[in-house]
Structure formats: C-alpha cells, structure tokens
What does this fold into?
Amino acid sequence: MIEPQDRVVLAPPVGRAQPRLKAFLLRVVQRPWPWLLRYFLTALPAMATSVLLAFPLGPWFRLPLFLEALDRRSLDDLLEILLHQPEGQSLGLSLTGTIVLIPIAWVVLRLIGLWLEGGILATYALLKAPTWRTFAEASSRWFGRFLLLALIGIALSVILTGGIAGAALLAGRVNRPLGIAAGIAGAAVVILAGAWVRLARAAMVVHEDGRVLHALGEAWRTIAHRPLVFLALVAGVLALRALLTWLGGALGAVVPMRAWLLSLVIQQPVQMALVGGGLVRRAADVWFVMGGSERHALERAPDRV
It folds into this structure.
C-alpha cells in the first residue's frame, strides 16, 4: 500500500486541451533515475559481458598477424589466423563461452529492462515524480502483463515477417522493383506493429487497466484518432536511433580495433544517448495516450500506480 505522501495524480484535462509533448519530454531530463537505472542495469552488464568474453582471446593479441588483421578490419583474415594458428585450441573455449553466455545474458537483460518499464512509464505519467518505492511497486505490478504483451508482440512480428517475406518473394519473381517495394512496405508494417504493442504498455499504465487485450484496443483507438502524429513519433524515434547508431560506428572507426577496450569506453556516451532516446519514446507514448483520452483512470485512483 502506498502511503498518502507518496500519492500522485495526473492533472485533469481542461476542456478539450491536450497535454503538451514538451512537458513530457522534459521529464526524461528532470527525472533522471530511469535513465540511470536502464543504463546501469542493462548497458553496463552488456559491456561487462563483452569484456568477459574477450579474455579468452587475450593470447591472440600478442600475435602480430592478428593485430594487423584487426587494424585492417578484415574478418576473413581474422578467421584464417584463428583457425590455423597453434593456439587455436583456446578459440574453442571462447566460442563455447560466447554461445552459452550471450543468449543467457541477452534474456536476463531483456527481462530486467521489461521489469523497469512499469516504473518508467509511471514516472512519466504522473504529475509528481514518484518515490523509489512507488517506482519499484509499479515495475513489479506491470511486469507480468508487459511480459505477456512482449510475447504477443514477438508472435505478431514472426507472423507478419513470414507472410510479408513470402509475398515479397512472389512479387519479386514477377517484378524485382515490386518485390523490393513490397519488402520495404512490409518492414514498415512490422515496425508499426511493434510500436502499437509498445504503445499498449503506456495505455495500460495511463488507464490503470491490466487487461492486455483491452490495452491493445485502447492503443489502436488512440492511433486511429491521430494516425499522422503516431507515424511522426515512430519516424522521429527511428531517425534518432539511426543517427546515434551511425555516430557510434563512426567513433568506433576512429579507434583501432586492437584498442577494443578504449573503443568500448569511448562509445559509452553514445550508449547513454541511445538509452535516452528510448526513454524519449516512452515519454512520447505516455503523452500520445493521454492526448487521445478524455478521462484517465489514474485520476480516479490516485493511490495506485
């Protein structure tokens, strides 16, 4: 149970006035703990995993041919050296560790990120910043429902990708440009479907309704009410991520690959910016859902998050 001093409510809408996007985006900076939490609980463990997996390759960094291949960024030369040098037996341990550790680490980090979602969305939805206790309670409360939404999103993506890939291949046999256009259009559909499922998380928190299918319906109705705004938000977030990813690649290209640890450190500001870009998308989702709603359940139940 949340104490009275922890209770926070949304400002009621005035007439047909809509909340301003700027106010929600500012909350990403004004309430930095979701940013720090996502970075330290997801990005840093991923970096630690990369360092751990690099240790078995330590002996290879003493080989001049290996370092030259790294400097040339030649994958073929690297594989040739790794497979034909006497020290090649150590590669087996490295590959085994990679095969076993990376999927486990990926699943654990995804689950941690999914647990944080409820608290992050509540942080941006509430007029007053929640306490740590409120944040943790919101994260725990919505975790199971968000996990179910994630599974629905994965199934939907697999079905759409398979159907669209088949249609694009058939269209490509008739006319290659038509097949390419069908593939691009299909990729856009998959991206928009994923954005719809993610928007359902915000709908669930804003409306204080744990029904998964109902949240998907609310998200769909919100999109139908303002489709151009939804498309602009999705395109803006994609453009931001593409820009930051390119920047990270450009920084990595400046540093020689033999100095992989330095490159990893240099790229961390870009990783923090990518985390911030994801939080901007979450704040925009909350704003979008609230802007399409006449009433919000959080107003009616201020003691819940």
